[in-house]
From TrEMBL, chain A:
The keyword Membrane applies. This is Dipeptide/oligopeptide/nickel ABC transporter permease/ATP-binding protein. It is found in: Cell membrane; Membrane. Keywords: ATP-binding, Cell membrane, Membrane, Nucleotide-binding, Transmembrane, Transmembrane helix, Transport. Gene3D superfamilies: MetI-like (1.10.3720.10), P-loop containing nucleotide triphosphate hydrolases (3.40.50.300). Its main location: membrane.
UniProtKB/TrEMBL annotation, chain B:
PROSITE patterns: ABC_TRANSPORTER_1, ABC_TRANSPORTER_2. PANTHER family: D,D-DIPEPTIDE TRANSPORT ATP-BINDING PROTEIN DDPF-RELATED, TRANSPORT ATP-BINDING PROTEIN. This is ABC transporter ATP-binding protein. GO terms for molecular function: ATP binding. Keywords: ATP-binding, Nucleotide-binding, Transport. InterPro entries: AAA+_ATPase, ABC_transp_ATP-bind, ABC_transporter-like_ATP-bd, ABC_transporter-like_CS, Oligopep_ABC_C, P-loop_NTPase. Signal peptide: none annotated. Belongs to the ABC transporter superfamily. Residues 4-233 form the ABC transporter domain.
Length: 616, 249
């Protein structure tokens, strides 16, 4: 919510709200007497220097009355909002904790109540509860309740579908705790925003009721009543009516703008569609590039003690039509490298590179539109790629509508075609379904279909086959290979599974602790891999011939966190060949042969002997 | 020693038969590997076992007692989920998530540290939020959380598919060690036949809601009877074949 302050509107609304709250607290203390002072010599006067907005029928100063009325007006609006919001929360979350049948009754009741217009509901309640402050507060509170209950229900339902709720239930977490610890914190943000907006409408609605004479009753007064009194003589002197009117508008605006600003900040964060990040390019290195040229790429984030740099100087080239695999453990920086190349590293991350070029142009100067159609990104996490409230087919089709200017129908037909291409059964029907109706593997295929809607020259696939069963995995990989062949698109396949990469790619980049430690053709992977980390990885993968009775080979220890990387080779703590030099100086990636680069201090001979010894 | 038994279990979502008359036994102290296509009903079967979805018909028995009759805390049946991005509450520190699964009367802090170390994570990260962890790290936390519940039976749904090979090896070794030490019974769901082959005593193959083949691991691997099992074996990743040969025809 703090970031709402960053926009000018947000800032203005916060200042205004602060001012109003200060008035509400202090005005009655400072000016309560003056607002109540009856002056029979100055009845019904117009504005003057003594009485800025004039006086009322008892000669009381209207300006001070407006100021003093801030407390009652805002207080009652907030009270009504709190009651309404709390009741709405209770009703909205009741279905989560109640038995199923009772939950259903609550849900239908809320659905019916939502259908009534709020103000009508308020008037109805005002009649029931009688005219007066209590009646008006309850009326407005219960007018807010249904929509808030519905909002809570919807949000709760969307969170309840996620695995962490299921996991908590399996652990035996009770329904109430589930609601309090897991559901509410995850939906708090939109609820708070909507409550703020509701407070704005409560304030104006309350002014309306008081104005109509069914709200605050004399001798108490709020802006609505002042407005009502002033309006009687608006043709004589407009000021007594304008004062409270301006106050109502300003206060209503302050709440609403603050809510909107907060909502836009929150919405922006959830959509996670960041703009392009600055990339520093120096044109020192003029070596021949390819479709994608990356030189000394670094990605840094502010940490607790200064910057941490999860990607520390990555250099590689992807040529047209090439299929390149990137392997490495989680946290080695594979995904961040991919995100940096797609310009998707989010604030506060900072990307720098000596060269970062796509299709011969600095990535920085490539337009979003061009990048959108020529670079396709298939993410690791299929669920976050979709908007849960829209049909799959439309979401896929949108890519072509927006970037290629296709008509709605043509784009939809293409979407169905691509769904068929990724072997979604009954693609026409499936295209009309929502994301949650797809299984995990199915969603991943849809993501790939989406990536294929443009005319990609480079497909970056980040763990696209993780969690897919072998037959589907094979299909997906073949699909990527077909894209590559038919459209001569290059593919950058990121995977933690070295077998998958070995089976599909031309070249493999092995990453460790934010750097490439070995690059070689996949043909040579099982015979000529030299880096101790690569050979350890290869030994650790079980395959259909692994001895089932022996423990699997493992690499002792764990990779360093980005903040833990110290001087020396980052693999040294886990490396059987490490010596003093390894612990003090970090080796650079150097060429062994054409197309084979290794970052290790040991000579090729030493490494070869070690591999042979390890294998024997 | 616990036995998990599915008796003619069916599960329907609307008209879709996700699980169709499945009978399967996870014998005490044994690991049953369950392989099959995505959407074949593996995860639905798992969800029914841990009580997330009641079966439409049939019974699921834990040591002869219908799991639906057991209070959750007494169920001693834990599950590790497939998607590490959604299986941890984004607003809770990983230590809190793990502690939540612990039975009463456990020293939570030391136990959290022990479990984190067990799954190869820095115990100092207990206060981190999941968003600071990469996918593999998150899955290890999820594993620690399942172990925190001191289960007798574990259902592991694709737990290694997001793990790194070096960690996968360690986790598989760990899973096997723990399984033997604690006498855990386990239903191990995975698409990776090499992994299933490595951990499982028995293998069950599922397709379109049905178990099409089940038997001792060696037998299923060496002499698959069902055509689908044969297809799976042919598609299994191996160092000696390339997957794309057919595609480049
Ligand atoms: N937004 C972020 N803020 C801070 N650290 C991050 C952020 N995103 C990723 N990291 C850290 O960067 C490292 C590399 O992450 P990532 O590129 O996702 O690795 P990989 O894809 O190889 O698993 C990890 O240690 C991760 O914790
Ligand atoms: S530089 Fe030293 S520590 Fe690093 S991989 Fe080579 S031998 Fe091992
Ligand atoms: Mg990754």
């Amino acid at each position: 919510m703090r970031s709402a302050l960053r926009s000018p509107i947000g800032l203005a609304s916060v200042v205004l709200l602060g001012f109003l709250l200060a008035l509400a607290v202090f005005a009655p203390l400072l000016w309560g007497d003056r607002a109540a002072a009856i002056d029979t010599d100055a009845l019904q006067q117009g504005p003057s220097s003594a009485h800025l907005l004039g006086t009322d029928s008892l000669g009381r100063d209207i300006f001070y009355r407006v100021l003093v009325a801030t407390r009652l007006t805002i207080g009652l609006a907030l009270l009504a909002t709190v009651i309404g919001v709390v009741t709405g929360l209770l009703l909205g979350s009741a279905p989560t904790v109640l038995p199923r049948w009772a939950g259903r009754i609550v849900t239908s009741a809320v659905n019916i109540a939502v259908a009534f217009p709020g103000l009508l509901l308020a008037l109805f309640f005002a009649v029931i509860f009688g005219t007066g402050t209590v009646g008006a507060v309850l009326a407005i509170a219960f007018a807010i309740t249904p929509s808030f209950a519905r909002l809570t229900q919807t949000l709760t339902a969307s969170v309840s579908g996620r695995d962490f709720i299921a996991a908590a239930r399996v652990c035996g977490v009770g329904r109430f705790r589930l609601l309090l610890r897991h559901v509410l914190p995850n939906i708090a943000e939109p609820l708070v925003i909507n409550a703020t907006l509701a407070a704005g409408s409560a304030l104006t609605a309350f002014a309306g009721l008081s104005f109509l004479g069914i709200g605050v009753q004399a001798p108490s007064y709020d802006w609505g009543r002042l407005l009502g009194e002033g309006l009687n003589r608006i043709y004589v002197t407009p000021a007594p009516a304008l004062g409270p009117a301006v106050a109502v508008v300003l206060a209503g605006l302050a709440f609403n703008l603050f809510g909107e600003a907060a909502a836009s900040v929150a919405g922006h964060r959830q959509q996670s569609t960041p703009g392009p990040r600055p990339v520093n390019e120096a044109t020192v290195d003029t070596s021949e590039g390819g479709l994608l040229t990356v030189r000394n790429l670094r990605v840094a984030f502010p940490g607790n003690n200064g910057w941490i740099t999860p990607v520390r100087g990555v250099s590689f080239t992807v040529h047209n039509g090439e299929m390149i695999g990137v392997v490495g453990e989680s946290g080695s920086g594979k995904s961040l490298t991919a995100l940096a190349v797609s310009r998707l590293v989010e604030h506060p991350g900072v990307v720098t590179a000596d060269r970062l070029e796509f299709a011969g142009k600095p990535l920085r100067s490539t337009s979003d539109r061009e990048l959108g159609t020529s670079l396709a990104m298939v993410f690791q996490d299929p669920m976050t790629s979709f908007n849960p409230t829209r049909r799959i087919g439309r979401q896929i089709a949108e890519v072509s509508e927006v970037h290629q200017g296709m008509s709605r129908e043509a784009a939809f037909r293409k979407a169905v075609d691509r769904l068929r291409a990724v072997r979604i059964p009954e693609p026409e029907r499936k295209a009309r379904q929502y994301p949650h109706e797809f299984s995990g593997g199915m969603r991943q295929r849809v993501v790939i279909a989406m990536g294929l809607m443009g005319e990609p020259r480079l497909v970056i696939a980040d763990e696209p086959t993780t969690a897919l069963d072998v037959t589907v995995q094979r299909e997906v990989l073949r699909l990527l290979a077909r894209v590559r062949k038919e459209r001569s698109a290059a593919v950058l396949l990121i995977s933690h599974d070295i077998t998958v990469v070995a089976q599909t790619c031309d070249r493999v980049l092995v990453m460790y602790a934010g750097r490439i430690v070995e690059e070689l053709p996949t043909d040579e992977l099982f015979t000529s891999a030299r880096h101790p980390y690569t050979t350890a990885l290869l030994a650790a993968v079980p395959d259909m011939e692994t001895d089932r009775d022996a423990p699997l080979a493992v690499i002792p220890g764990r990779p360093p966190e980005p903040g833990e990387i110290e001087a020396g080779c980052p693999f040294a703590p886990r490396c059987p060949l490490a010596d003093e030099r390894c612990r003090s100086e970090e080796p650079e990636l150097t060429a062994l042969t054409d197309g084979h680069r290794v970052a290790c201090w040991r000579s090729e001979k030493e490494l070869m002997d070690a591999t042979a010894g390890g294998a024997a | 020693m616990s036995e998990l038994k599915f008796e003619e279990v069916s599960l329907r979502y609307g008209t879709l038969r996700a699980v169709d008359d499945v009978s399967l036994t996870v014998p005490p102290r044994q690991v049953v590997g369950l392989v099959g296509e995505s959407g074949s009903g593996k995860s639905s079967l798992a969800a029914a076992a841990v009580g997330l979805v009641p079966p439409t018909s049939g019974r699921i028995l834990l040591d002869g007692v219908d799991v639906q009759r057991l209070r959750r805390r007494d169920r001693r049946l834990q599950m590790v989920f497939q998607d590490p991005y959604s299986s941890l509450d984004p607003r809770m520190s990983i230590g809190q998530s793990i502690a939540e699964a612990m039975p009463r009367g456990v020293d939570r802090r030391t136990e959290v540290a022990r479990l984190l170390a067990l799954v190869n994570l820095d115990p100092g990260r207990a206060t981190s939020l999941p968003s600071r962890l990469s996918g593999g790290q998150r899955q290890r936390v999820a594993l620690a959380r399942a172990l925190a519940g001191q289960p007798k039976v574990i259902i592991a749904d694709e737990i290694t598919s997001a793990l790194d090979v070096s960690v996968q090896g360690a986790v598989l070794n760990l899973v096997r060690d723990l399984q033997r030490q604690l006498g855990l019974s386990m239903l191990f769901i995975s698409h990776n036949l090499a992994v299933v082959r490595y951990v499982s005593d028995r293998i069950a193959v599922m397709r379109e809601g049905k178990i099409v083949e089940e038997g001792p691991a060696e037998q299923v691997l060496a002499g698959p009877r069902h055509p689908y099992t044969r297809e799976l074996l042919a598609a299994a990743p191996s160092r000696h074949t390339r997957l794309l040969e057919e595609a480049s025809r």
